[in-house]
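Notebook p. 47: complex prediction with adenine.
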Amino acid sequence: MHIDIISVVPDLLRSPFDHSIMKRAADKGILTVNVINLRTYGLGPHLQTDDYQYGGGAGMVMMCEPLDTCIAELKAKHNYDQIIYLTPDGKTFNQKRANHLSCMNNLLFICGHYKGIDQRIRDLHVTMEISIGDFVLSGGELAAAVVVDAIGRLLPGVLNDETSALTDSFQDDLLAPPVYTRPATFNGLDVPEILLSGHERKIDEWRYEESLRITKERRPDLLG
Ligand code: ADE
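Predicted complex, structure tokens below:
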């Protein structure tokens, strides 16, 4: 998969993809992430990328021209499956959307700042709008990092144990069961005996029951 991310603060996106699972995905050639500095498309001597909003009011708006030129250049090189704008008024991101996007080949993310991007860029280019939750970040970069991480770890060959993404929370609308590692007793607390039994079917049943119990307790909305 190839992902391009347009940002006015590309440095914010350097570290998230340079470690752990995202780095492994890059090293294996499974995922390439390219961050484009929108400022290089800025207008005038100050490479301006934002301006006051029509109609008045506080907060700047990201201008059409730099974004349009940048997107057009990228579109000439890549056949994007989706052009995604990160915005608090987008559809809420969840595991289903992560699964769906992980099946794509080319994605372009646009990170907004200030009051957001000019509506005409949304009308002309954007094919999907995603929010990572009902709160407002100071820019789309951290949201893009969250979405790319959630997608990247689902790509075949990225996780060592191919089945481990399938047992994540939300993968079947259930939260994950509790997990334990050594030692078997810690501060007087024992690992549930069933997990030490070696009885695979019973362990699966226990995990399923625990998932159900925890989901009922914490997120009954997931059970519909
Ligand atoms: N940009 C600012 N806030 C955001 C959010 N909650 N989700 C996605 N992008 C954003």
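Notes: The mean pLDDT is 96. Residues 2-152 form a domain with the Alpha/beta knot fold (CATH 3.40.1280.10).
Next step: compare against the earlier run before touching the bench.
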